[in-house]
Design goal:
Helix content: 25-40%
Largest sheet: 9 strands, mixed
Distance between the termini: 90 Å
GO molecular function, one term: ATP-dependent DNA damage sensor activity
Organism: Carbonactinospora thermoautotrophica
CATH topology of the largest domain: Rossmann fold
Keywords: ATP-binding, DNA damage, DNA repair, DNA-binding, Hydrolase, Metal-binding, Nucleotide-binding, Stress response, Zinc, Zinc-finger
Family: Belongs to the RecA family. RadA subfamily.
GO cellular component, one term: cytosol
Number of strands: 21
Number of helices: 10
Number of domains: 3
Length: 453
């Protein structure tokens, strides 16, 4: 008879239980998270000493929880005013996007304000980080640097320096000798993060942990890591572009719909309070196939330019290529433009892209994509002072989008005087002539009228 095993294996991510070990959890599809679970034990918890007596909530001092500015206004915008003492921030991003440079700037800025900062690097040597700090001007006597990969040594540096800001780059490279598993594994990451969070809360140290990302862009490691920290930031950017964006995925102390824009160059990383100019091309005469739109990144309106090129082809399957735009969304707009708008695109190659490396994912850019393609197909340029905002539906209708007034106000600030928008845009800023389009045919008709003027 076959022996029956009494062992139980459980996924540390979702709690899925199985009778045998699996490399991948069939429930949450996570790798390396199935571990053997011990036999349940009945434990009795008795009341113990408390760290501090309970008080009425109105008598709790809130001064210790006030955010302190980091010295980078764009980062403070995303954090909700700055770093809160004792808060733990997880910053994730792709390799080479500039996470270490940004946090070195933050540590140097806090040191200049009188707050002792400690940077613990586990991915680079101290000499390599020193060279970068000298290049970007991040040298200060209150900024300390340590190259460690052991958790106990890291806690020893915290004990000796007693910083107000702790930066760990990265949490996947730190390991504990008391826990089994390779550095970066689920067990190691959970233990290291728990120890650093415990020290941050006990000593009231603002802590920033750098996290890796997987191939699909999600944060690597156990999902419990995102639940333990107070703030989760996503650092985004194309390595071929200088633009970098910081978004708040989770924030216990501020909003999650803000975005910070930075310019990464040889001299470091600089905040961009007005990045709209990066996404517009400058030319003397209007060119067919270009249309300007206004996108919302969080609550910030950004003016961006969409470019399209329609060229005849002899191929049986015409090419469709996009850059900075969702290919599926562009394909849908092209189908609507041909079926509902009467623009013949069947025997042409179509290329659509954005300017400046910005990525447009919201449906409000549909109308600008459609007008840019129609302009290139007709070889007639659009007026340079025109912006287009609106979502295009499969029936050809132009749907309303959020924040039309804020978008038009940003366009008016940059000198645009005409706008093509969905019906009922609300209050229109002074100096902007608004044309309402109910469907794609009305938008193309308005486009023809604007081109004749």
């Amino acid at each position: 008879m076959a022996k029956t095993s009494s062992r139980t294996y459980r996924c540390v991510e979702c709690g899925y239980a199985t009778a045998k070990w699996l490399g991948r959890c069939p429930e949450c599809q996570a790798w390396g998270t199935v571990e053997e679970a011990g036999a349940p034990k009945l434990r009795t918890v008795v009341p113990g000493p408390v760290s501090s007596p309970a008080r009425p909530i109105a008598e709790v001092d809130v001064e210790a929880a006030q955010a302190r500015p980091t010295g980078l206004a764009e980062l403070d915008r995303v954090l909700g005013g700055g770093l809160v003492p004792g808060a733990v921030v997880l910053l994730a991003g792709e390799p080479g996007v500039g996470k270490s440079t940004l946090l070195l700037e933050v540590a140097a800025a806090c040191a200049r304000q009188g707050a002792t900062s400690l940077v613990v690097t586990g991915e680079e040597s101290a000499a390599q980080v020193r060279l970068r700090a000298g290049r970007i001007g991040a040298l200060h006597e209150r900024l300390y640097l340590a190259a460690e990969t052991d958790l106990s040594a890291t806690l020893g540096h915290v004990e000796a320096v007693d910083p107000r800001l702790l930066v760990v780059d990265s949490v996947q490279t730190i390991s504990s000798a008391e826990v089994d598993g390779a550095p970066g594994g689920v067990t190691q990451v959970r233990e290291v993060a728990a120890a650093l969070i415990r020290v941050a809360k006990e000593r009231n140290i603002a802590t920033i942990l750098v996290g890796h990302v997987t191939k699909d862009g999600s944060i690597a490691g156990p999902r419990v890591l995102e639940h333990l920290v107070d703030v989760v930031l996503q650092f985004e950017g194309d390595r071929h572009s200088r633009l970098r964006m910081v978004r708040a995925v989770k924030n216990r102390f501020g909003p999650t719909d803000e975005v910070g824009c930075f310019d990464l160059n040889d001299e470091g990383i600089i905040g961009l309070p007005d990045p709209s100019g990066l996404f517009l091309s400058r030319r003397g005469d209007p060119v067919p196939g270009t249309c300007v739109t206004v996108t919302l990144e969080g609550r910030r309106p950004l003016v961006a330019e969409v470019q399209a090129l329609v060229a005849p082809t002899s191929l049986a399957m015409p090419r469709r290529a996009t850059s900075g735009l969702e290919s599926s969304r562009v394909a849908m707009v092209l189908a609507v433009l041909e079926r509902r708008g009467g623009v013949r695109l069947g025997n042409t190659d179509i290329y659509a892209a954005t300017v400046g490396g910005v990525r447009l994912t919201e449906p409000a850019a549909d109308l600008a994509v459609a007008l840019a393609v129609a302009s290139s197909a007709a070889d007639r340029p659009l007026p340079p002072d025109l912006v287009a905002v609106g979502e295009v539906g499969l029936a050809g209708e132009v749907r309303r989008v959020t924040g039309v007034q804020r978008r038009l106000a940003e366009a008016a600030r940059l000198g645009f005087t005409r706008a093509l928008v969905p019906p009922d845009p609300g209050k229109v800023p002074e100096g902007v002539a608004v044309t309402e389009a109910t469907d794609i045919r009305a938008a193309l008709a308005a486009l023809s009228d604007a081109c004749r003027r």
